[in-house]
């Protein structure tokens, strides 16, 4: 199967049990796992100081692995933006190394896209994606949080990515989206459009910097965790007001989770945010329900690759690879 | 004394007792208080829908008052940015109306500065600034949160602003700042430099939009509430990476409050963030300790006005008005 290089570009790994389980799962799936020497380094809240994490990213680029997988997100990559080994990363991608991660990793993905055009993959990280405990782990751990283990859909998408056979992904649109899209006779929302995006807060943190990818006519996907709808709206409005959204073929919203509405909200919620965005954006379709975000069921998405976006009988399909 | 127009451009007023106390305090100070008809309007989490709040801002601009004071912050002004009555607001400022507020109000202040150059005041809002309960209020309220009432320093600064006699403000620098600044023989850090800034998250929410004020050689002041140091750092890094910080004469940090460090932080804190910023920024001094933010002791600061920034024997002084 695949040679997978595991490294830590962002936050320190605190859940070592999840780390070990993740490696064992990848091995049990038949993959060869190589662990970066500083994968478990710690410095303050980071997986080693800035120089340590930069070196780890350099080793991941030089690994010759099929997949370079982050252990986790957190915070730390924006500190490294001026010094990332962009050329080495782009060369690695050119030679077939797939860089996979999400959350904080969005910053590296967008900066690499801006500087080199090299595509990467938005997908799971080792600990949260492959290290999720199942019932037998919990019994062993005496107190580990019992979940049902890694998500089956994520695993299937990861295998498709790792073996290079994936050619797209699809999801059932929520009812409100289906109603809206009925009015569009042509279900082909985007053709050969650059797919980009990731974590909304991280996307925002690149705006105005030299690492912002100026994507025109793209498909922008966004997700976030722990951000109240008013903050999600504020971020989306900024993207709108900066002219970014109107220049895209479509906006695709993934999962927005782990926020809490308060008594002050009085009916203001994420649905209102999406409705408001649609009212302001008008010409650019906003789809929701993409299975991507800080949730177990995550598809893998090729950031920086041309995609087609189709809507057919209430299903959305993002297609890449050899299909168009 | 002053004619004060009270209006609600952002979040709905929920604490009506604080609202009433604030008005009574201003009246007791001798001011004439005019309350906007929609000051207590509510729509979802907002003080009325967007059209209602826009109309209130228009009435504040047309009021002819000496001071137009917001009832509170919250969230809502970024929604209005494309439609704010910029010319009417600038005309009102030209005729002597001082627009005062903070937090969400930062968005209006920076947009007005960008579009018209008109100065405004960063300062208290009615409810949190003047509505703070004291011991006698709590006794009356049977359960109201007893504090010591409005802050004396804020009240003195507000009176200076309202009567137009204020010419500057000063504060004792923290020890670390004093050590750093010893190396600078010349304590005159900025001369005739535009003072700008406010709430850090709101400043960030303007970046890349048509309402971003392109201030060169200014003094940028920043505060925030409820933002973890890693998020404060991420925002400061973005301003640095966007080239904004290096173009200023000085950065002045106010109060950063109501965040909670977690077990994952392991020594990463706000001091580390400030140290890291200083190490990266090098040529531009970063002062801390400005008495401004989501705290009772707040000075009033003229956003968009030229200021001098001086450091003398461990004190910092921001001077405006007729003194230079």
UniProtKB/TrEMBL annotation, chains A, B:
Family statement drawn from the similarity comment of this UniProt entry: Belongs to the peptidase S66 family.
Short name of any one Pfam family annotated for the protein: Peptidase_S66
Protein name: LD-carboxypeptidase
Superkingdom of this protein's organism: Bacteria
Entry keyword set: Carboxypeptidase, Hydrolase, Protease, Serine protease
Organism name: Ottowia flava
LD-carboxypeptidase N-terminal domain mapped to chain residues: 4-123
CDD domains, per the entry: Peptidase_S66
Protein's UniProt keywords contain Ribosomal protein: no
Domain LD-carboxypeptidase C-terminal: 194-309
Keyword NAD: no
Record SUPFAM superfamilies: Class I glutamine amidotransferase-like, LD-carboxypeptidase A C-terminal domain-like
